[in-house]
Amino acid sequence: MMLSSTICLLASLVVVVVPATSPSQAGGAAKAARTVNLTGNDTMKYDVTTIQAKPGETLHIVLKNVGSMPKIAMAHNVVILKPGTDAAAFTSAGMTNRDTDFIAPAQKANVLAATTLAGAGETVELTFKVPAKPASYDFVCTFPGHFAAGMHGQIVAK
Ligand SMILES: [Cu+2]
Q1: d(CA 137, ligand 1 centre) in Å
Q2: 28 C-alpha to ligand 1 centroid (Å)
Q3: In this structure, are residues 81 and 91 in contact, taking their beta carbons and an 8 Å threshold?
């Protein structure tokens, strides 16, 4: 048989280790998304409110609602806003828009990425490719009243 000997061709994997302090140059091959886990609870708080990121990296944000109240009364999401968006105005505009996860249709252009709403015990997620330019991105929970109660945070990309 021609195939009596096995030839293994090993593709050489080159692992490039970028120093943690590496500044602006974020170019190169797309890397796997980095997972960031958050929780939301019945006191309307995220457990993580600042997410440090590198410009150009892809974040996979996973939110778990660790509370126990019924979803109709207490649900959480993560909505990342375009820089410059007035987060208070954004969330109050959406308060009556239950069918669109409390995001006003007129405000949709200010959303860079969003999860759906998670009720008690549920997990929701989003993928966000951080733009190459260093910036900070507010994220909010759009469930009525939650932003005012402090349910918001920031992705700091630098
Ligand atoms: Cu919430």
Answers
A1: 18
A2: 36
A3: no
| pLDDT tens track for 129-152 | 999 999 999 999 999 999 999 999
What's the 111 CA to ligand 1 centre distance in angstroms?
16
How far apart (Å, rounded) are the C-alpha atoms in residues 130 and 53? 8
> How many Å lie between the centroid of ligand 1 and the Cα of residue 58?
24
pLDDT at 32: 85
For the record, the structure tokens of 10 come out as 């090993």
Interval between CA 75 and ligand 1 midpoint (Å):
5
For the entire predicted model, the pTM comes to 0.80
